[in-house]
Design brief:
Radius of gyration: 13 Å
Strand order of the largest sheet: 2-1-3-4-5
Order of helices and strands: EHEHEHEHE
Number of helices: 4
Shape: globular
Helix content: 40-55%
Number of strands: 5
Largest sheet: 5 strands, parallel
Strand content: 15-25%
Amino acid sequence: MSTLRVVLVDDHAMFRTGVRTELEKLGLERADGVEVVAEAEDVDTAVKVITEHRPDVVLLDVHMPGGGGLEVLRRLQQLGSETTFLGLSVSDAAEHVIGVNRAGGRGEVIKEIF
């Protein structure tokens, strides 16, 4: 197994810091590790770092200025990436989950779990 490479995308720095801390703790518990390779706070930066780092997993805020996670997914569709995208949302509303999944996401994580 190899290290699981993660990109965090959320417009709130404090939330990204908390998630990074929890993922780093998880990485210490796993023999193969978890590494946060980049963070982004908006759509443009997210597209740039995801394209650059080609992570295994992206935790992607559904609601951000500039179109949110759906816009990021729309822009990245042409890459044909094997990256797994999980939407981050404060809401568990069905339309959020469906929107993320239709755009190429694999599911949604409710922010309350962090």
